[in-house]
Amino acid sequence: MTTDMKTKAGTLTGVSVALGAAAVGAWLATRDRKHHPDNAPGWTQRRSFGRYEVVGRTVTIRKERAELFAYWRDFSNLPRFMFNLDRVENRADGRTAWFMQDHGGDIIEVDTEVVKDVQNKLIAWRSVEGSDVDTEGRVTFDDAPGDRGTRVSLIIAYKPRGGAIGKIMSKLFMDDPRTHARHDLKRFKMLMETGEIATSANRPQNTRAAQKQEN
Amino acid sequence: MRALTWHGKHDVRVETVDDPEIVNDRDAIIKVTSTAICGSDLHLYDGVIPAVQSGDILGHEFMGEVVETGSASTLTKGQRVVVPFTIACGGCFHCEIQQYSCCENSNPAEKQDMSAALYGHPMAGLFGYSHLTGGYSGGQAEYVRVPFSDVGPIVVPDSLTDDQVLFLSDILPTGWMGAQNAEIQPDDTVAVWGCGPVGLFAIQSAIAMGAARVIAIDHYPHRLALARGLGAHTVNFRESNLQEALMEMSGGIGLDAVIDAVGMEAHGFAIDNMLDVAKQTVGIGADRAHALRQAILAVRPGGRVSVPGVYGGMVDKFPLGALMEKGLQLRTGQTHVQRYTHDLLKKIENGEIDTTFLISHRLPLEDAAEGYKNFSSKQNEWTKVILKPGMERTAA
To answer: Region (Disordered) spans which residues (chain A) (predicted)?
Structure first.
């Protein structure tokens, strides 16, 4: 890619320490206990996450952990409920290419690698060098208290930038990744709990799924 | 098909629009045989509910014949069904505990943001009631796409007429839940604000639940007469000092339970209401809560307050002190229709409940706009309007 991406590659080591996928969960999910002795999730903190924007969202779904994990782990299922995700391709080297449609209809490729994969519990991924977007994320699956099903948390960190990539990011997320995370998780819940995604469209060709339209 | 569409305040029209089709596997298409204009449709007509868009098809009280089914629908073609106005998925936590009107999955994801911002949580999907509740096309039409058709619609026997069962879609369960939320005990004296359809059914339900005395409050003589016909005592608030009358009629004790079946567009010239009217008129999202304020003052200490009337925004001068200092219970909510339809259908079949007394007018769907106008402006005589898609028009 461009100079910009090389710069990113140069700092990748540092990023890995701060935000590397193995560490991202801890970094996002725990607070500095000395100063903030509470149990609020890390992504709800009123503080800066440095050069990264962090988005986190949780839903509770009345299904078994294993079933939800298996559906999500098969990445080819994701476009069914992530409406800006056009398709997902598995590469021979184990990496995955995500083809996302931005607001203007252009396709953006994000190459990712799974950096942590704990059966029925956690999937973490991060974009690799050469990808159009610098992002990483994780989804966790936890038993809800009592008989409420499974708590699914999606946490995404991304680096907004100026220049071409900044434009891509803002086009991709319409400056509001929170909206995406929220809608994607709600649709995942609908699909798992009801077998379909609610729509008020009166004809199949008018649904947002058919039009790949997020908002 | 023909359908009643919204175009702005006091502007509804019957137009030709696309027929609906099966979209999801659990859908069914219903050919509407009867549909009603609800008092809460007047909130849309008056433009006090946000997020209604030009061209939206209104109507949430409807019934008809199943004409098409998706692969996962449990209905079969030719069945006669009444459709609850609340859309419920049957699979989420709230549906599991029968809080159907709090369904988490029936409002499309991208439509949930607005009500989540307003109320802290998204609303469920409702037919024909703005994009806050999903933007679903309503039942004042020839055909309706009904999602989750394996959960909501109730099959009705041919031995019962449309007029006998149509109100299972909303107002009968709403009146029933309004009375149930008031936790009526034998020997109770109960007052109901508003003798519109929901108020009248709440009166009927409260009596069926064993209340010793039910007091009906309104200012339309004909509506008060209908309440008397059900066995209620009545007070016309234009003619008597309401608080004093209620205190006297409850022997100086106050009411054991009160039911606000008026909601956000209360009538009256009390100072709080006039301020509310002014705020609503300039569109700052205020509700007119005059009836609810009165009800909270009239209920006895330790009493119960039930609110089936619709509210959508904020209120000022809410008597929170009275609520706390008198130790009141307050219960409200959109109706969990699916929880009640089965039992109420049985009561209709057994002759324990008759709802047909309410119907004042039957019109062809083509005359729906006229129906809205009259239901809104002639509330004394126009107590309930039924629209029938197939009905012949008579010369106007």
So the answer is: 196-215
Within an 8 Å CB–CB cutoff, is residue A121 touching chain B? no
Residues B142 and B202 in one domain: no
In a domain, B47, yes or no: yes
Question: What ipTM was reported for this prediction?
Answer: 0.91
In the numeric block, the tokens 């055909």 are attached to B143
Whether B127 is covered by a domain: the verdict is yes
Whether A143 and chain B come into contact, CB under 8 Å, resolves to no
Residues B16 and B158 in one domain: yes
> Are residue B130 and residue B55 in the same domain, yes or no?
yes
Contacts of B104 in chain A (CB under 8 A): 189, 193
In this complex, the residue of B25, B107, B112 whose CB is nearest that of residue A196 is B25
Q: Is residue B60 within 8 Å of residue B170, measured between CB atoms? A: yes
Q: What is the pLDDT of residues B168-221, one digit of tens each?
A: 999 999 999 999 999 999 999 999 999 999 999 999 999 999 999 999 999 999
Q: Which tens digits make up the pLDDT trace of B313-360?
A: 888 889 999 999 999 999 999 999 999 999 999 999 999 999 999 999
Question: 3-state class of A98 per DSSP?
Answer: strand
Q: Are strands A85-90 and A53-61 parallel, antiparallel or unpaired?
A: unpaired
B257 and B372 together in one domain: no
Cα distance between the two ends of chain A: 30
Q: Which domain holds residue B187?
A: 177-332
Q: Give the tokens for residue B301.
A: 């200490």
How would you classify residue B242: left for phi > 0, otherwise alpha for psi between -120 and 50, otherwise beta? alpha
Q: Distance (Å, rounded) from C-alpha B244 to C-alpha B39?
A: 29
Nearest-CA neighbor of B93 among A111, A23, A150, A185?
A150
Q: Are the C-beta atoms of residues B20 and A202 closer than 8 Å to each other?
A: yes
Indicate yes or no: CB of A183 within 8 angstroms of CB of B110: yes
Joined together, the tokens standing for residue B293 give 């304020």
The answer to whether residue A179 neighbours chain B at the CB level (below 8 Å) is: yes
Cβ pair A199:B113 closer than 8 A: no
The verdict on B161 and B198 lying in the same domain is no
Question: CA–CA separation, B330 vs B337, rounded Å?
Answer: 20
The residue type at A31: R
